[in-house]
Amino acid sequence: MSLDELIKQCADNDRKAQKEIYQLFAGKLFSICLKYSKNKQEAEDNFQDGFIVIFDKIGQFNFKGSFEGWLKRVMVNTVLLKYRKKNVLNIVTEDIPDEVIVDVDDDEISLDFLLNLINELPDRYRLVFNLYVLDGYSHKEISEMMQIAEGTSKSNLARARAILKQKIEIHQKAQQSI
Predict the structure, then answer these.
(1) Could you give the number of structural domains in the chain?
(2) Binning pLDDT at 50, 70 and 90, where does residue 87 land?
């Protein structure tokens, strides 16, 4: 059965088709939830909520563009909606610090260590950092998705980078003293 047929059957609430869509995309979509959530438990909750929204709105997919891209966008928007409801995104500032350059020595810093540092960022900084740096969204797109000013997106990204830079420098100094 083709993907288009599966999508149409899902729109008709066919449980078997929904299971197939779930099995096809669960891994990729859960990794998105992990990236935008504080921990695994929150990621699991976001993942479940995201799939409920996906199956509720699958009839709105217009077969233009990538279905996988549509799924990812629904999942990210579901997670961001939760944060908007918690009011963790409502920092409004146009004070944009200078671009922060983070110098990372690949031999000293592991990917897992960097991902842990990113997960430790405050929600508003982590979300903007992930959207901009890891997923390639523009500040304009981020401002629309998160319902914040473009300047706030830029400021939150700069602050996230500054925090990461400070933590990496502390880690590197600690490694040098060993």
Answers:
(1) 2
(2) low
